[in-house]
Amino acid sequence: MSTPTEGWHGWDAYARFYDWENAQTVGRRDVRFWADLAARADGTVLELGCGTGRLSVPVARKARRFVGIDRSAAMLRKLRARLRRARLTGRASIVRGDIRVLPFRSDWRCRLAMAPYGMLQSLLTDDDLAATLDGVARVLAPGGILGVDLAPGLPRWGEYSRRVGLRGAMSGGRRVTLIESVRQVPRRGLTVFDQEFVETRRGRRKSHPVSIAFRTLSVPQMVARIEAADFAVDAVLGGYQDEAWSPDADVWVIIARRS
Which domain, by its residues, includes 205? Predict the structure, then answer.
């Protein structure tokens, strides 16, 4: 597969299998962290890259008002159905748009902007990251909070080809096998996941290729870019339970405040 040139490439194709895969990997270990942050925000919460709503629904239950933005129409269809089932449509709004150019009125404000699950790592250039952070600074109320989490180990992933990662059942009697390859693109600082979801139902086999890319910055590099967008960094954590930061932590969490 070719290397994605934009961070949003591949996510529409991924939408069909996103929840199935994440239920077996990330699970719910980050849900309480973001829901508690939303409850403390005491105002509107904006989720960047809300996707199918793995976090959006529990966060919307805690937030005074919730707004999610994502570019993928396929992802958002699943989120809207989730919000209807949870009876949260009265307090949650969904916007299809680009996080690099937030489509909100000049007087619109939120109290918390959250970029979970490595969302800012799907921005593949410094210009894209700067545009997103500047836009978030524009819509956050003074003193509002920006929460970011990052996957730290991507550049250290060894490259491999066509390794069976997961197998399991999906709805409708489908069986799915994930065959995954990993490529590093050092000159661009990218890790590319080339995935093939092989779906079998009633003896029929169908292949769904997906290719998504993530860019990794070190914590000092990310902190410098956040501060350049007029934020003050309050904390850098090594987990979702206030663990001390470590370069070897499974996740890095940055909490910053709008100056």
Answer: 154-214
Biggest alpha carbon–alpha carbon distance for the chain: 59
Distance of CA 153 to the CA centre of its chain: 16
CA distance 138 to 136: 5
Does residue 187 register a pLDDT over 70? yes
pLDDT tens digits along 48-96: 999 999 999 999 999 999 999 999 999 999 999 999 999 999 999 999 9
Q: pTM score, two decimals?
A: 0.92
**The token pair that represents 259 in the structure block:** 């100056």
Among the listed residues 135, 138, 49, the one whose alpha carbon sits nearest the alpha carbon of residue 94? 49
- Among residues 165, 219, 217, 223, which one has the least CA distance to residue 189? 217
Which structure tokens are listed for 123? 């921005």
Number of domains in the chain: 2
Count other C-beta atoms under 10 Å from residue 75's C-beta. Answer: 25
Same domain for 117 and 245:
yes
Is residue 1 one of the residues assigned to a domain?
Answer: no
Domain shared by 209 and 225, yes or no: no
Whether 5 maps to a domain, the answer reads no
User: Which of 116, 101, 104, 92 is closest to 29 using CA atoms?
Assistant: 116
Element (H, E) at 95: strand 92-96
- Note whether 246 and 178 are same-domain residues: no
Give Cβ neighbours of residue 156 (< 8 Å, ≥ 6 apart). Answer: none
